[in-house]
């Protein structure tokens, strides 16, 4: 049935910001919705006259906006983490609290079962000291333990976990990763990059992971809980940035059982690229609820985990971070994916990593200039003028962290320095170059609330009140667009998401106040009152269910 043939209902609100392009209505008080799409936006009186029999739904006071699109958020990882222990700094503000929380979580598990904990922040919880295997051995001696860092690129395990993984002091570093060691060369329990992925991340592991995965019912419950949190922040679409076969099966199961509450664009991890290429599957395969968004790969490590690959070392060290792929491997992958008409979505944080990725994409474009797929740079954190110019020339879409200045900024100054931080998360410079930029939280590596990211981009102010790279500030309208048309474009969906305009999906968020009229420092305090997906209520602040 065509949209024009579907029954129309009118949604009215005190103020609706359509985020439509210049020349279209910008602020209205009503939407006409047919099926799951917007049929018209305009004055309520005009829409009443145009659709006289349409029922009306009052969204109340406040301001409605297009539902937030997060281009890079780890939905299925959040579901898996929900099954384990949360050791984020919000709940473990000290080493003693961390130990107590791990012991308490272990006490709820069957004998010998793995204890998996996530979102450990060594800066805010243990004062910059990284806990090691001996700490975990003292706290939880009777079972294998994995504590993953908030950046998700390294973690710490105890002796039982090392034994379960078959790792000894004589074990070599895996390609693309490393095993932490103490001054005597013995394993200290810290696993970096591929060493961690092989242990616990099935989408990236090069063999069956050692940590047993949760069951499907547990994961679906975790997905429900994570989705509810994201809906409460107004997120209606997610780019799930690390999807392998297990994660795809989970998303498909949720879709089949009507438990997929956000629209999901899956970035399938690079070990599975050849299967998609052989099957002839293209970007956009799927529907408006679950679709393929590209191939996720990695060049380097993490910003907050201090493993990204830099041209200049971290301050006070000779450490340049670490690449996790060779130039030959990256060039080959880029050419294969590009030639197949699939979108690349490659994690590259440091300037050396980004430059290497640009080399690979330039090579692929030279070999196959007939293919015009817009590729993505995930995070794209440390840039300079040459990098920005190359990104613009290639028509790439960077997906920088939106909230990192506020969330991690205080902890990053000593490692990167203020000058370099002024070139990081460079939303202003990228936008000024005419580049499409997408909004991203990278949750669980940063807060998932889009308004937190918007505030960080607008203020460039840390939690301690320090301004880092004030010249990179952008306007509220530009920051909101990151989580609208920018993020939609990163998934090739800018024709249906990011605006409340005719033909677009009727996904919207209702805020208690108009963000265009709220002081920048208060943007993240605006309450979300309702979230709608496809013209239907999905979450409301005054109800536990919708």
UniProtKB/TrEMBL annotation:
Positions of the Aminodeoxyfutalosine deaminase/Imidazolonepropionase-like composite domain: 30-54
GO molecular function: hydrolase activity, acting on carbon-nitrogen (but not peptide) bonds; metal ion binding
CDD domains in the cross-refs: YtcJ_like (cd01300)
Recorded superkingdom: Bacteria
UniProt keyword list: Hydrolase, Metal-binding, Zinc
PANTHER family linked: IMIDAZOLONEPROPIONASE (PTHR22642), PROTEIN LONG AFTER FAR-RED 3 (PTHR22642:SF2)
UniProt protein name: Amidohydrolase
């Amino acid at each position: 049935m065509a949209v024009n043939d579907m029954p129309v209902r009118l949604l009215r609100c005190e103020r609706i910001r359509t985020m439509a392009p210049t020349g279209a209505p910008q602020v209205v008080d009503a939407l006409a919705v047919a099926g799951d799409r917007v049929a018209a936006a305009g004055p309520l009186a005009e829409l009443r006259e145009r659709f006289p029999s349409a029922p009306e739904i009052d969204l109340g006071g406040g301001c409605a906006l297009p539902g937030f699109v997060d281009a890079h958020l780890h939905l299925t990882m959040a579901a898996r983490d929900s099954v384990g222990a949360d050791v984020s700094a919000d709940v473990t503000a000290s080493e003693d609290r961390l130990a107590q929380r791990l012991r308490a979580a272990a006490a709820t598990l069957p004998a010998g079962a793995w204890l998996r904990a996530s979102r450990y922040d060594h800066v805010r919880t243990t004062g910059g000291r990284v806990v090691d295997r001996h700490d975990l051995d003292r706290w939880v001696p009777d079972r294998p333990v994995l504590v993953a860092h908030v950046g998700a690129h390294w973690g710490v395990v105890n002796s039982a976990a090392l034994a379960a993984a078959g790792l000894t002091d004589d074990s070599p570093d895996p390609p693309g990763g490393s095993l932490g060691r103490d001054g005597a060369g013995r394993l200290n329990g810290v696993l970096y990059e591929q060493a961690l992925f092989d242990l616990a991340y099935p989408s990236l592991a090069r063999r069956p992971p050692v940590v047993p995965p949760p069951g499907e019912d547990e994961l679906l419950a975790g997905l429900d809980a994570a989705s509810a949190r994201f809906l409460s922040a107004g997120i209606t679409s997610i780019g799930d940035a690390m999807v392998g076969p297990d994660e795809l099966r989970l998303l498909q199961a949720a879709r089949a059982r009507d438990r997929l509450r956000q629209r999901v664009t899956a970035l399938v991890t690079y070990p599975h690229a050849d299967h998609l290429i052989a099957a002839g599957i293209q970007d956009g395969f799927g529907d408006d609820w679950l679709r393929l968004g590209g191939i996720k790969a990695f060049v380097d490590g993490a910003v907050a985990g201090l493993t990204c690959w830099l041209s200049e070392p971290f301050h006070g060290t000779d450490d340049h971070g670490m690449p996790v792929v060779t130039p030959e491997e990256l060039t080959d992958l880029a050419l294969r994916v590009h030639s197949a008409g699939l979108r690349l979505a490659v994690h590259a944080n440091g300037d050396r990593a980004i430059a290497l990725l640009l080399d690979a994409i330039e090579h692929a474009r030279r070999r196959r200039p007939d293919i015009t797929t817009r590729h993505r740079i995930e995070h794209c954190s440390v840039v300079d003028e040459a990098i920005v110019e190359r990104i613009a020339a290639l028509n790439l879409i960077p997906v920088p962290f939106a909230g990192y200045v506020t969330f991690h900024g205080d902890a990053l100054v000593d490692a990167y320095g203020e000058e370099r931080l002024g070139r990081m998360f460079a939303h202003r410079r990228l936008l000024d170059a005419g580049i499409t930029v997408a909004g991203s939280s990278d949750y669980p590596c940063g807060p998932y609330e889009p308004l937190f990211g918007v505030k960080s981009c607008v203020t460039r102010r840390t939690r301690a009140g320090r301004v880092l790279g004030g010249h990179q500030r952008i306007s509220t309208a530009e920051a909101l667009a990151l989580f609208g048309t920018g993020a939609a474009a990163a998934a090739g969906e800018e024709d249906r998401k990011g605006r409340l305009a005719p033909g677009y999906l009727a996904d919207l968020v209702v805020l208690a106040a108009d963000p265009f009229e709220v002081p920048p420092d208060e943007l993240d305090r605006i309450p979300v009152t309702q979230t709608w997906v496809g013209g239907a209520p999905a979450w409301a602040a005054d109800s536990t269910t919708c």
